[in-house]
Amino acid sequence: GPVRTICNGSNTKVTAQPVPRPLNHMLLTVTNTGSKPCNLMYYPVLRFDEMQWVPQARPETKPQAVPTLAPGESGYAGVLLAAADGSGDGGTTARKLTVAFQGGTPNSDGGAAATPPLPAGGVYYDSSLTVTYWQSSMENALG
Predict the structure, then answer these.
(1) Chain mean pLDDT for the chain
(2) Cys-Cys crosslink for 42: which of 12, 16, 78, 102, Cβ 3.0 to 4.6 Å?
(3) Total domain count for the chain?
(4) Is the pLDDT at 4 greater than 80, yes or no?
């Protein structure tokens, strides 16, 4: 079939929005602003401020198929920011978020990163920070 473009910061708009539930979660939304369909590969590589580690993806969230976004369509990932029971450590408030995209093979560079704005007060996270794989539906990203 046709070679699909990879979704990244150059052909999408990315937002990062804390959600009321589940507790301590943030929703990443990626909307295809390009003219061709693009593939959301694997999971987002997140970096808050100058963070020196990469939050891991929860394996059970891996979708059956790579989400493909037609122009104007959106894909989603859920971010668990902090342990609800307080068991995480190293808690801190982030002011800046960088979202990097993976390419055709795991951990490869998918192109331009995105820096969606965070809420004015920043976002609190701790060592339990994890992400979901990219999903086609908001329900799956926050499920």
Answers:
(1) 94
(2) 102
(3) 1
(4) no
Q: Is residue 71, in this structure, part of any structural domain at all?
A: yes
Range of the domain at 106: 5-137
Percentages of the chain per state (helix, strand, coil), in multiples of 5: 5, 35, 60
Give the 3-state secondary structure of 63-88: CCCCCEECCCCEEEEEEECCCCCCCC
Q: pLDDT tens, 65-123?
A: 999 999 999 999 999 999 888 888 889 999 999 999 999 999 999 999 999 999 999 99
Q: What is the pTM of this model?
A: 0.94
pLDDT for 31-55, tens place per residue? 999 999 999 999 999 999 999 999 9
Whether residue 143 is contained in a domain is answered as no
**Using CA atoms, how far apart are residues 52 and 8, in angstroms rounded to an integer?**
22
